[in-house]
Amino acid sequence: MTLQFPKRLIEVDLPIKRISAHAMREKSTRHGHISTLHIWWARRPLAACRAVICAALWPDPADPLCPQDFRNKASKVITDFANTAVSNKALGESCDHQTWIKWQSLTRSGGLDGRKEAHWNVLRFALLDFIADFANWDNAAVTEYLDTSRALTQAAHEALGGEIATRPMVVDPFAGGGSIPLEALRVGADTFASDLNPVSVLLNKVVLEYIPTYGMRLANDVRKWGDWVKKEADNQLAQFYPNDLDGSTPLAYLWSRTIRCTGPGCGAEIPLIRSLWLSKKGKHKSALRLIVDAKEKSVRFEILQNVDPKAVQAGTMRKGAATCPVCGFTIPNPGVREQLAQKTGGADTARLICVVVERSSVAGRFYRLATDRDTKAFSEAASALKSCESFDGNGYSLSPFPDEPIPSERPSPNARGLSAVTRIGVRTFGDLYSARQKLTLHVFARTVQRAADLVAKETGDSLLAAAIATCVSLVFSKMAGLCSSFNRWEPNVQCVQDVFGRQAVGLVWDFAESNPLGGSRGSFDTFLDGAVNLLGLDQGVSNSTTPQQADACAHPLPDDSAECISTDPPYFDSVPYADLSDYFYVWLKRSLCSVFPEWRTSSATPKDEEAIWNPGRVTSAGVRKDETFYKSQIQRAFAEARRVSKASGIATVVFAHKSTAGWEAILSALLEAGWTVTASWPIDTELGSRVNAQGTASLASSVHLVCRPREYVDVHAGTDGVGDWREVLHELPQRIHEWMPRLAEEGVVGADAIFACLGPALEIFSRYSRVEKANGDLVALREYLEHVWAAVAKEALAMVFKDADVTGFEADARLTAMWLWTLKSPETNGNPEDGDPEEDSEDEADTKKTKTGGFILEYDAARKIAQGLGAHLESLDHLVEIAGDQARLLPVSERTPHLFGKEEEEPARKTGRKKKSSQIDMFAELTESEDAEAAWKEKTVKRVGDTTLDRVHQGMILFAAGRGEALKRFVVEDGVGRDGKFWRLAQALSALYPSGSDEKRWVDGVLARKKQFGF
Questions:
Q1: d(CA 808, CA 941)
Q2: Residue 806: what pLDDT?
Q3: What is the pLDDT of residues 423-472, one digit of tens each?
Q4: What is the pLDDT of residue 803?
Q5: How many domains does the chain have?
C-alpha cells in the first residue's frame, strides 16, 4: 500500500517566471557572491536553489493532508511578514510590486487565519509570492526574509513529525560549488554536503563551515596572512617582473608561439597570432602591425595608436593553419601542431611581442614593444627554475612543478576538458606554463605552504588555521587560472582572460601573461581583495556543516535520515569535472600539503568512480565509461539517496541536457532506484546567446524534477502497483494538454518546454511499479518516452497553428513548424559576436569545411518529433539532412533544386554585403538588388510546389530575389494565394523564425503583400 503524505508546495505550483528572472539577473552578480571565491563549473544560481528548497520543505496548506499546525503557524508568520513589509518602506520596496499590493490587502483584511478553510488557498499563494521575492539576490541576507523562511521551515519540520529540537536535513551528494547546501543552511535546514571531488569539498568547507564559524575574524586573518604571502613572494620574484625605467608597471606580457615556415626556400620564423588587435575600447584603439623584411626573411612589429579598424591586418592564424607573412605559404594545421609538439607546446620558445603597462600619472592601459630588458628578465627566471626544490616533509615528497600527466583523450563531443592542449605536445600540467609562470606559481605555492605552518603555530586552533590556509591557498589557486600559456588577451576589455572561458582549456596560439605582482587583473592582490570582501560579508547563514569527500554511490549517512534530497548531478557528458579541477588540484595539494596530508598520495582527483559519460576512458578495473557506465553510476547514486531519504521525504534533481540519451539515462536511473516523479519545473539558468547554444537545441533552462520515494509492492502477492498501458496512454495527452499552456504563459518554449513536460508525463508512468500491455509485456521507459515526445509535438503544433486544423498541413510543414518551435528560445540567436567561432575550430583535429546554415537537432530528437507527427525523416531528404548523430533542417537556399529545378539552383548572385553569422541566417545571402534581378531574368516558377511548405518557400525566395512580378503571378495567377493554408503556414513561420533573421524578413515580405494581391 502506497504511503500518503501532504503535497509540498513544489508539487503543486512554483512561480517559475519570477524565479527565472532573479536567476538570470544573478548571473551578472559578482560582489559578495560565492562564485567569486573560486571557479567551479556549471554552478546553479542561488536564486533557483533557494526557491526550490523552500518549496520542497514547506507543505501545501491547501492540501487536505496538510497538518493543521503548519497552517496555523504559517498563517501567523506570513501575516507578520506582510505587516512588516507594509510598515517598512525599504522592505516593501524589496518586494515585487504586485506582491506588495497583495501584502497591503492582507494587512487590511486582518491577516490570515489557518483555521479557516477559505484562507488555505490564499496562504498557498502568499507563500509562493514570498518564495518568488526571496529568490531576489538583494533579499538573500535581509533579516526579515531570513527569519520568516526559517520560521516556516521549522514549522513545516515539526508539523511533519520532526523533533522540536532538530532541523530538517537536506542532503546533496553532488555538492559541486555548494549552491544547494548553502541555501539549505540559509533557510534554516541542516545540510549534509558531499562530493567525490576534493576541490569541490574544499570550496564547500569555506562556504559551509569556515565562513559561518569564523565570519569577520576569518576575513581579517586572511587579509593578514595574504599580505604576508604577497610580501614574501615579492621579495623572491620582483627582479623577474621589473617596473619600467619611467616607473610604469607592467600589467601583462603578450607572447606569440612560433614555428618555422616550410614553404620552398623560406624558413622564416612565423609568429602565431590570431588577432593583431590590442585595444578596441573607445576612441583609443590600438593594434599591432606586421613589418616584413623579405630580404632578411624576418618579421618585426610596430604599435598603431588611434588606428582605423580597416587598417588592422589579419593575423597569421586562421582555423589552426598558419600563413607565413614573408612568403605567403600556408602551413596546415597538422604541420603547425607537429612543430609545436616538438617544443612541448612552445611556451618557452615563444616570442615576447608587446607589454601592457599602467602609468601612475595617467589613467588607462598603454602598450609598448618588448625590449631586451624584458627578455632578459624572462631568461633570468628560466635560470632560477634550477634552484626550485621539491615539497618535502614528514615522509612525503612532491615535485617542485606539477609533473602529473594530462589526460589526452577527449572526454566526449560535448566536453573538451584539457585534451586540446595535448595535441601540441603538452603532456603534463607543468607544460601548461612558460618558465617564468612556472617559477611564479612554485614560489607562491611554497610561500602559502610556509604560511600554513606558521598559522597553525600562532593560532593553536587547528580548524581556524586550516580555514586561513585554505582561503589564502584558494586566492593563489584562482591566480593560477590567469597564469598559464593558454590565457588570451581580450582587446574589448583590455585584460587577460581566465584559462577556463568555456569549461575547457582551448588551444591558444598567442597568449597573455599576467603580472602577479601588479595591481590589475591576474595579480595576487586583486584576488586577495575579492576573497576578503566575500569572507567579510554576511551570507545570511546562522549554522554550519562539515562537508565530506564521499562517493554518492556509497553514502556515509544512515538509513531514513534526510527529509529532502536536493542535488545537481553530472549531466551525462557535459562537463568533465575531475579533468578540469586537476588544473587547480595539482597546485592546491602542494600549497596545502601540511593541512590536508591525505592529498599527498593522490596524483589527481578521483576519476574511476566519477559519474560521467566518457567513452574514451577506461577505469583501472577495465570498465569503459560509456552510456551504460553512466546510467549504472547514477542509478546507484539515486538508490543511495533513496536509502538515506525518509519515507515521507522528497527529492529535487536538477538536469539540463539536450540529448534524449542523457534524459533517458537520468530518468530510468531515478525510476529504477525507487523514486517516482511528481512534478517538474524549468527555471532559466543558462544564457541562450552563448556560442554553443546558437542554432541548436541547447537548453536555456534547468529542469528541476520533483520526486518521492516509491514504496514497492510484493508483485507476487497480487497486481497492486501494475499500470494498464491503455489507461496510461489515454491520460498522457490530457496531462500534456493541461501543462503546455501553463509553460507558454511562463515563457517556457522550445526544447525547454519539451523536457519540462517529462515531469508531468512521468507522474503517470512512475506511479506504478511497472506498466503492462494487454498481453502482459512490460513497457520500457524508452518506449513510453517515444509517446511523450509525440504528445508534446502534437500539442505544440496545436498551439502554433492555434485553431487551425493541423491535419490539413502536410508532413513537411508539420515537421518544419515543430522543428523551429523546438529550437525557439527568447535568447536563441543572440549576438554572434559573443564568442569567436574560430576558437572552436582551433580545438578540432582538422579544418575541413562543414555546411553551415539551417538548424541542428540531435538525430534521435528529430526522429522522435517526426514520428510523433506522422512524418519519416528518410522520405524528406529534400528538407532534412542527416549526418551521424545530427539532423539539419535545410536552409531554403539549399532547397532551390527541389523547389525550382536544377537550372535555377542559384537564383541570385551574392553581393559584397557583409555576410551575417550562419547561426542567424538559415538561408544563403540573397538580396533585392539589380544583380539579383538580372540573374533571375524573366524566369518564373515553372511548377507550383506539391506541398504548402514548398509553395511558401517558393514565395519567400521570389521575394528574396526581388522578383515582385513573378511573386504576384505565383500568388495570384497560379492561384497559390487562394489557399488559406498558404497564409496560415506563412503566418506561423513568421512567428517561429528568429527575430531579425533574413528568413523572417522574407516570409514577412510575402505576408505584407497579401492585401496588395487582393487577399
A1: 24
A2: 65
A3: 999 999 999 999 999 999 999 999 999 999 999 999 888 999 999 999 99
A4: 63
A5: 1
How many Å from the N-terminal Cα to the C-terminal Cα in the chain?
64
Position 707 scores a pLDDT of 94
Range of the domain at 983: 801-824+834-1008
What are the angstrom distances between the C-alpha of 173 and each of 153, 181, 628? 21, 10, 21
Burial class (CB in 10 A: 0-12, 13-18, 19+), 673: buried
Helices (H), 109-186: 120-134, 143-159, 179-186
CB 476 within 8 A of CB 229: yes
**Cα separation, 999 vs 921, whole angstroms:** 7
Would you tell me the crossing angle of helices 758-766 and 725-745 to the nearest 10 degrees?
Answer: 150
pTM of this prediction exceeds 0.85: yes
Residue-level pLDDT at 572? 84
C-alpha count within 13 angstroms, C-beta hemisphere, residue 1003: 26
Q: Which residue, 981, 984, 973, 986, is CA-closest to 1014?
A: 973
Q: What distances in angstroms separate CA 240 from CA 243, 338, 708, one per listed residue?
A: 10, 31, 60
For the chain, the residue count is: 1015
The span from the CA of 462 to the CA of 437, in Å, is 32
Q: How far does Cα 245 stand from its chain's mean position? A: 45
Of 823, 821, 891, 884, residue with least CA distance to 854: 891
Q: Does residue 683 lie within any of the structural domains?
A: no
Reduced to 3 states (helix: H, G, I; strand: E, B; else coil), residue 504 is strand
Nearest CA among 418, 395, 844, 425 for reference residue 607: 418
What's at 243, amino acid-wise? Answer: N
Domain assignment present for residue 648? The answer is no
Q: Which residues is 405 bridged to in the sheet?
A: 428
3-class SS string, 777-821: CECCHHHHHHHHHHHHHHHHHHHHCCCCCHHHCCHHHHHHHHHHH
* 3-state SS, residue 196: coil
Asked if residue 437 is part of any domain, the answer here is no
989 lies in a domain? yes
**Spatial CB neighbours of 68, under 8 Å, sequence gap ≥ 6:** 114, 115
Name, in order, each residue with C-beta under 8 angstroms of 523's C-beta and a sequence gap of 6 or more: 479, 514, 515, 516, 517
* CA separation for the pair 288, 312 (Å, rounded): 8
At 912 the pLDDT is 36
Integer Cα distance of 546 and 175 in angstroms: 12
Query: Quick one: DSSP state of residue 778?
Result: B
Q: Which three cell numbers stand for residue 32?
A: 559578495
Res 693: pLDDT: 39
In the chain, which stretches have pLDDT less than 70?
Answer: 1-3, 395, 410-416, 658, 685-700, 712-720, 803-807, 825-853, 902-941
Q: What secondary structure does DSSP assign to 924-990, as a single string?
A: -----SHHHHHHHTT---SS--SSHHHHHHHHHHHHHTT-HHHHHIIIIIT-GGG-HHHHHHHHHHH
DSSP assignment, residue 209?
I
> How far apart (Å, rounded) are the C-alpha atoms in residues 350 and 346?
6
pLDDT digits (tens, 9 = 90+) for 479-529: 999 999 999 999 999 999 999 978 889 899 999 999 999 878 889 999 999
Name 253's Cβ contacts closer than 8 Å, sequence gap at least 6.
352, 354, 355, 356, 370, 374, 512, 513, 515
- Cα distance between residue 520 and residue 614, in whole Å: 38
Query: Which residues are 304's β-sheet partners?
Result: 287
Residues 971/975/981/983 CA torsion (nearest 10 deg): 20
Based on its alpha-carbon atoms, the radius of gyration of the chain, rounded to whole angstroms, reads: 31
865, amino acid identity: I
Please give the torsion angle defined by the CA atoms of residues 617, 622, 624 and 629, in that order, rounded to the nearest 10 degrees. -120
Name the 3-class secondary structure at 170: strand
Nearest 5 degrees, angle CA 519-CA 523-CA 524?
110
CB 259 within 8 A of CB 266: no
Q: Which residue has the cell 593575423?
A: 315
- Phi and psi at residue 651, to the nearest 5°: -135, 145
